[in-house]
Amino acid sequence: MNFFKRAWLNVWAKKGRSVLLILVSSAILMFVLAGLLIRSAAVKAMETAKNDAGATMTLSANRQAAFKKMQSSSSSSSSKSSRPKLTLTPVKLSDATKIAKLSNIKSYNVISSTTANAKSYDTVSTSTGMGGNSGGPGGMKATGSSSGDTQIDGVTSTALTTAFANSQSKLTKGRGITAADKGTNHVVIEKDLASQNNLTVGDTMTVKETTGSKSTVKVKVVGIYKASSTSAASAGPMSTDPANTIYASYTLANTIKGSKYAGTADSVTFNVKNPAQVSATKKAGNQLISSKYALSTDDASYQSIKSSMNNVEGFANKIVWLVAIAGTIILALIVILMIRERRFEIGVLLSLGEARWKIVAQFFTEMLMVIVIALAIAGVGGKFVGNQLGSQLVSQSTTTQTTSSGSTGQPGGSGQPGGSGGSGMRGGAGGPGSTTTNRAKTQNPNLEISVSAVDLAELGGFGLAITFLSIMIASGGILRLEPKKVLIS
Amino acid sequence: MLRTEDLGYWYQDKDQPLFQNINLEFETGQSYAILGHSGTGKTTFLSLIAGLDKPREGDIFLDDRSLKKIGLTNFRRHDVAIVFQAYNLFTYMSPLNNLLTAMAITGASHAGDKGYAQRILNDLGIGDDLITRNVQQLSGGQQQRVAIARTMCCDARLVVADEPTGNLDEDNTQAVIAQFQRIAHEQKKCVIIVTHEPDVAAQCDHQYRLENKQFVQLA
Ligand SMILES: Nc1ncnc2c1ncn2[C@@H]1O[C@H](COP(=O)(O)OP(=O)(O)OP(=O)(O)O)[C@@H](O)[C@H]1O
Ligand SMILES: [Mg+2]
User: Fold this and answer.
1) What range(s) does the ABC3 transporter permease C-terminal domain occupy (chain A) (predicted)?
2) By residue range, what is the domain housing residue B120?
C-alpha cells in the first residue's frame, strides 16, 4: 500500500516530531498501564484475600426453634408454677461430618465446652474486688453447683479456635491440641496456672467432674499457652480467671459432661474454601440437618476485604478510563494541529486524486508506528508507575481494612454454657499451624504489580483505540479540506 | 480533447460572475497560455478545468464525457496533472520518491519504475546527487522542475499550471517553459498555463486573455 510507504517516509524524515509524539504517547499509555496493573493486581489480591479471609459457618442448636417449643409448652401447660426449661439439643457429630463433606468446606472445628473442679492443683484467682469473698482457691468448690472452677474448652484443634487464630492466645511450650488428640486426655493449660502449680509439659493433673458420679479425671499436659489480656474480655462476667481455661480434645470435654454427651458438641465451626459461595453452602448444609439445628454464617472479614478491594478496583478502573479519555483528547488535539500544519501536503495528495480515506489511513499508520514504540516504552515504565501507585493504594486500603476488621472481630457466642468463642469464630483459619501467617496476609492485602501478557494486550487495545479515536476526531479536517482553497490562494 | 460548454462561475452572487458563457476547446499536442489582470478569475478557471472545483454554470467535457460523470477525484487521478506556483512537493521525500508516489497514486503505466523516474529527473537537470536528497534542500527552480517532472511521469494527457514561473529567475523560467513545450509537442499532451508574463505566453502555441468576463484569443 502506497499510504503505508508515505507514512514510513514521513515518520522517518521528521524524526524530531516523531520522538516528541512517542514521548507524549508513552506518558499517556504509561498511566493507562498503571491503571490496568493496579486493577488486575486488585483482582488477584481479591482472589487471595478471599481464600485467606475465608468465611465460617457454625452448626449449633436452633435457639429460635427451641424457644418456640418452650413457649408453646408453657401456654399449653395449665400449671403456671413450673417454669418450662429452654432445652438446647447438642449438635450431633454425625451431622457435622456430613456437612464437612460438602465441596466448599476446608476444615472444621468441633467445640464442646464444660467446667470441672480442680483436684490436684489450685486455680488462679483474680485478685480484684469480688475475689475476696470467694474464700480463696478451691474454697467453695463442689458444693452442688454444676459450674466448676476450671473451664474446659474441648476442640478439634486449638489452632482453629478464635483465640489462637487471632493470636490472642499463643503457645509458649509444647504443642496445641490437634485432631490426633481425639480420644486422649491431653490438655493445654495457661502459663499462670502452670507456674502457680509447678506444672510443665509431660506432667499430669486431675480434675473432678461437677455432675453425675463426680468422678475424677486424670489429664496430661502437652502444651502451655499464654492468654493475652484481651482474651479475658471474651470470658464473660460469670467466668473465673481466664488462666483457668484448659484446652482439650472435644472428646475429653464430652466425657466430663457425661456419657450421654458422647458424639455431640456445643457447636461445630466450618471453614469455607470459597467465601463467595458461603450462602449456597449454607443452603446445602441445611438440607442435611434437622430443624433442631441451625447453621449460621460469618463472612464479615471476607466482605470487608471484598469491599476494600472493590474500592481499589473501582478506583483503578476510573484511572484507566480517565487517562484513556484524557489521552485521546490530548492526542486528538496534537493530531489536529499536525494536520493543519500539513494541509499543503494533503492538498497535493488530493490534487493527485488520492482517496481521502487513504490520507486518513496514512495518518493512522503514522500514529500506529509511534504508538507501537510508545507501547514498548510504557510497558517498561508502567511497572514503575504502577508500583508507586499500588503501594500508595495498599497503605490506604489497609487502614480501612484494619478498622473494619477491628469492629467485627469480637467473638459473639454468649448465652450457651461455656459456648464462648463458638459461633463468633471468624475467618482467617487455614490449616493448623499456618493460621497466623494467613491472618497477617489478610490484614495487609498485597498488590503484586507485574506486567503480564494480558495487561500488555489490554494496553495495546487501549493504545489502538486512543489512536483510532484521535485520528477519527482529527480527520474531520481532512475530509472537509478543499484542495483548491489550500493550493490556490 | 477538453471542451467547456457555457461555463460560468461566481463566488458570492450571480450578478457578479467572474466569467460566463465560456466555450473553449483545448487539444492535445498544443500549449495554451492564459493572460489577464490580477483578480479576473484565471486561477478560478484553472481550478475548474483541473477538477478542483465544480462549475456554477455549464459543463466541462473530456472527449465528450462530462466531468460530472467521470467524477472529480477520478478525473484528477487519471486525466490531469497540476503544477502550482509553490507547495507542489511532499516535503518529507526526495525528488525520486515524489515522482514514485505520484505514479503510484495515479496508477501510471510506469508506476514503480525507478529508472524511468530517474531519467525524467536527469533530463530536467536534476542530477543523481540531487534525486535522493530531501526536496527541501533543493532551490526553488529545482523544486519547480521536479514538479514538472512529476507531470511528465504520470499518464495524464492534460497538464495545467498556475504561474509556474512566478517565483523563478529568467534562466529557470526559460528552462521550465521549454519543458512545457516538450510535454506538449513530444509527449503529445495538452498544456494550459496561467501566467502574468507576456514573454512566457508568447512561447506557447495559443494565447488567451481573460477580460470582461470573457476569454479573448490573441492573434
Ligand atoms: N474563495 C473565494 N471566495 C470569494 N472570493 C474569492 C475566492 N477566491 C477568489 N476570490 C475572488 O475571485 C476573484 C478571482 O480570483 P482568482 O484567484 O481567480 O484571480 P486571478 O485571476 O487568479 O488573480 P491573480 O492574477 O492575482 O492570481 C478575485 O477578485 C478574488 O478576490
Ligand atoms: Mg491566480
Assistant:
1) 319-393
2) 93-155
Q: Which residues of A433-466 are buried (b: 16+ CB within 10 A; e: fewer)?
A: eebeebbebbbebebebebeeebbebbeebbbeb
User: Could you tell me which of B105, B85, B88, B95 has the C-alpha nearest to residue B154?
Assistant: B105
pLDDT tens digits, B69-116: 999 999 999 999 999 888 889 999 999 999 999 999 999 999 999 999
Helix, strand, or coil here: A288? coil
**For residue B100, is it within any domain?**
yes
Closest B-chain CA to A353: B77
Chain A CB within 8 Å of residue B93 CB: yes
Which sign, positive or negative, has the C-alpha torsion B107, B113, B118, B120?
Answer: negative
The alpha-carbon radius of gyration of chain A (Å, integer) is 35
Reference A138, options A127, A128, A125, A126; nearest CA is: A125
| Interface pTM, i.e. ipTM | 0.93
Residue A51 zone, left/alpha/beta (φ > 0; ψ -120 to 50; rest): alpha
Contact B197, B166 (CB under 8 A): no
In a domain, B113, yes or no: yes
Give the three cell numbers for residue A314.
Answer: 473501582
SS (H, E, C) B129-185: CCCCCCHHHCCHHHHHHHHHHHHHHCCCCEEEEECCCCCCCHHHHHHHHHHHHHHHH
What residue's CA is closest to ligand 1, atom 27?
A: B38
**Could you tell me which of A296, A309, A306 has the C-alpha nearest to residue A276?**
A306
Residue A251 CA to residue A112 CA, distance in Å, equals: 8
Residue A190 CB: number of other CB atoms within 10 A? 23
CB contact under 8 A, B105 and A347: no
pLDDT digits (tens, 9 = 90+) for B31-78: 999 999 999 999 999 999 999 999 999 999 999 999 999 999 999 999
Burial class (CB in 10 A: 0-12, 13-18, 19+), B182: middle
> Per the CB < 8 Å rule, is A5 touching B101?
yes
A266 in Cβ contact with A414 (< 8 Å): no
Report how many domains make up chain B. Answer: 1
Atom 29 of ligand 1 has which residue's CA nearest to it?
B39
User: Does residue B175 sit within a domain?
Assistant: no
What is the pTM (predicted TM-score) of this model? 0.68
* Phi and psi, residue B25, nearest 5°: -130, 135
Other CB atoms within 10 Å distance of the CB of residue B132: 12
